[in-house]
Design goal:
Blueprint: E1 15-20, H1 24-35, E2 40-43, E3 56-59, E4 62-65, H2 76-85, E5 90-94, E6 97-101, E7 104-108, H3 112-119, H4 121-136, H5 145-153, H6 155-161, H7 163-170, H8 179-185, H9 191-203, E8 219-223, H10 228-240, E9 244-246, E10 249-257, E11 262-269, E12 274-284, H11 288-294, E13 295-296, H12 302-306, E14 310-320, E15 330-333, E16 342-345, H13 346-349, E17 360-368, H14 373-376, H15 379-393, E18 401-414, H16 420-434, E19 438-440, H17 443-446, H18 452-468, H19 482-487, H20 489-497
Parallel strand pairs: 1-2, 1-12, 2-9, 6-15, 10-13, 12-19
Antiparallel strand pairs: 3-4, 5-8, 6-7, 10-11, 11-12, 14-17, 14-18, 15-16, 16-17
Helix pairs in contact: 1-10, 1-18, 3-4, 4-5, 5-6, 5-8
Length: 507
């Protein structure tokens, strides 16, 4: 699996647009530009897969995601683009996810009567009292994730359903995580709305298609052989339009020549060679820290870029003929007695992910920092750990595990600590001032914990800005302003028309 185009020589003439990274943001930008007739080259450091963290990995015919990616968006332009790239290969999947806490499973979104039964009347009463107290006496101007969630749900529910999982994901206390992350990821969901929704679910009176928070959707679309299918198809379409996707190519340097307005982009190839490309525009979805480190001369904001942090991620895939029935797409593990943070069930994402049609293929997700003890553990030790923990949780008998593998993913999550906002702002302002033809897109490219559809929107709007020759859209408002981020290009146009967004060139 994977779309591969190779290059053996540097470009003798400059390309209009050079894109760093063949993830959703980079490929969306490339496709939008190529459809308009613009010249495009995409550089991807992976030797095999496009799609970034939205790729689909193939292990002996078993297919699995890096984290699981629902195809759901409120942006018509994004949905239309999905249908255009992959018109005949989507399936509709029911969403079923649960939380595991205290040796019990809770439906997510919560079902009121189930939660009441599992927590017990006394604990449930205390949770509601805690919520009432937080509502009457909120923390003014909450700065941390802990304070934001306490205001939203109460201290007791925060401790049960948010604290442990969040600290597993980020590897730090909830008092060290910026409130920005909660505001961005959980916007539109409140306890009253969740309780009402849970009551409707419990009583079976929620109407199909009834609008609600994005986190409460009951179904989603999914490529029948995983999200990598989308990005393989997108790369192929870019090539058919005359663009190029160059694999196994790692950017090592960027130098902007003021005299001719061209970028010199140095690239190390997988065979040990090196290339230099010249480009009028560079679109980067590379991690901000790595991008700024590659620029010469070094920008003054380099220390700010180097202070940005990332959380890494590994998946231990367990395969076997399980005697345990698991209908979930995934289960969040809130229990502090195990290290695993989430369990994916790839057959529930799509039956075509399983080559024999009957095996169970579970992905146990562990959050870590590159180089720490968990990351540095051998595959054998990680598989042993995952087998023990899946047995403790009760989702698969360790004796049923017949095969396994480990996939590591660096820089899966940009960290929202208490300094990240100032650091990103320093980098963003300097790059925009010095380099008007350098454009940042995507999750790591903008150090924003975006969903796949938001990342795509940043690539699409950046391409439209380049084609227009002026910054019509402020890409940095994607997933910050709710109307702009969720409504897509049409939302951006409406926002511009009402003068709520001021066009400015972004770096």
């Amino acid at each position: 699996m994977g779309f591969k185009v190779t290059s053996s020589m540097a470009e003798s003439t400059p390309v209009d647009n050079l894109i760093i990274g063949a993830g959703p943001a980079g490929l969306t930008a490339a496709y939008t530009l190529a459809k308009a007739g613009a010249a495009v080259i995409v550089l991807e450091q992976d030797p095999r897969y496009v799609g970034g963290i939205s790729r689909t990995v193939d292990y002996k015919g078993f297919l699995f995601d890096i984290g699981g990616h629902r195809f759901y968006s409120k942006s018509k332009e994004v949905v239309d683009l999905w249908d255009e790239i992959l018109p005949d290969d989507f399936i509709d999947r029911p969403r079923l996810s649960r939380m595991y806490y205290g040796d019990k499973f809770y439906a997510y979104p919560l079902r009121a009567f189930e939660a009441l039964r599992n927590l017990g009347l006394i604990e449930s009463t205390l949770c509601m009292a805690s919520f009432g107290w937080a509502t009457l006496f909120p923390i003014r101007e909450p700065k941390t994730f802990h304070h934001w969630m306490r205001n939203k749900f109460g201290e007791r529910l925060f401790g049960i359903f948010f604290k442990t999982y969040t600290e597993k994901v980020w590897g730090m206390s909830c008092d060290e995580i910026s409130a920005d992350w909660a505001a961005q990821r959980i916007k539109g969901l409140d306890l009253l709305g969740a309780v009402i929704d849970g009551l409707k679910r419990s009583l079976g009176i929620r109407r199909t298609g009834e609008a609600g928070a994005k986190t409460l959707i009951e179904s989603f679309r999914y490529p029948r052989r995983g999200p990598g299918m989308m990005w393989d198809a997108c790369a192929a379409k870019i090539a058919a339009l005359g663009g190029r996707v160059v694999m196994d190519s790692r950017v090592t340097g960027l130098d902007w020549n003021v005299a001719d307005g061209l970028w010199r982009v140095s690239v190390a190839t997988g065979d040990g060679g090196s290339l230099t490309y010249r480009a009028r525009n560079v679109i980067s979805s590379a991690p901000v820290r790595e991008l700024v480190q590659a620029i010469t001369p070094a920008p003054a904001s380099l220390p700010a870029a180097e202070d940005l942090k990332y959380r890494d991620f590994l998946t231990v895939v367990l395969i076997g003929k399980s005697r345990v029935e698991m209908p979930d797409n995934w289960v969040y593990i809130h229990d502090p007695t195990v290290t695993v943070g989430r369990v994916q069930n790839f057959r529930s994402w799509s039956p075509e992910m399983i080559p024999d049609g009957v095996s169970t293929c579970l992905g146990l997700e562990y959050f870590c920092f590159e180089g720490d003890g968990l990351w540095a553990s051998s595959d054998a030790d990680l598989i042993a750990l995952a087998s023990r923990e899946i047995g403790k949780i009760g989702l698969m008998d360790p004796a049923d595990v017949a095969d396994a593998c480990v996939v590591r993913q660096v820089k899966a999550y940009p960290v929202y600590d208490d300094t990240y906002r100032d650091n990103v702002l320093a980098v963003r302002e300097e790059l925009a001032r010095l380099y008007p033809t350098l454009h940042l897109v995507g999750r790591n490219g903008m150090h924003k914990y975006n969903n796949q559809d938001h990342a795509m929107m940043t690539g699409m709007l950046t391409a439209l800005n380049i084609l227009a020759g002026e910054p019509l859209y402020d890409v940095w408002d994607v997933n910050e302003d709710a109307e702009y981020g969720e409504a897509g290009v049409s939302g951006a146009k409406a926002a511009l028309a009402s003068e709520r967004l001021v066009p400015q060139r972004v770096g």
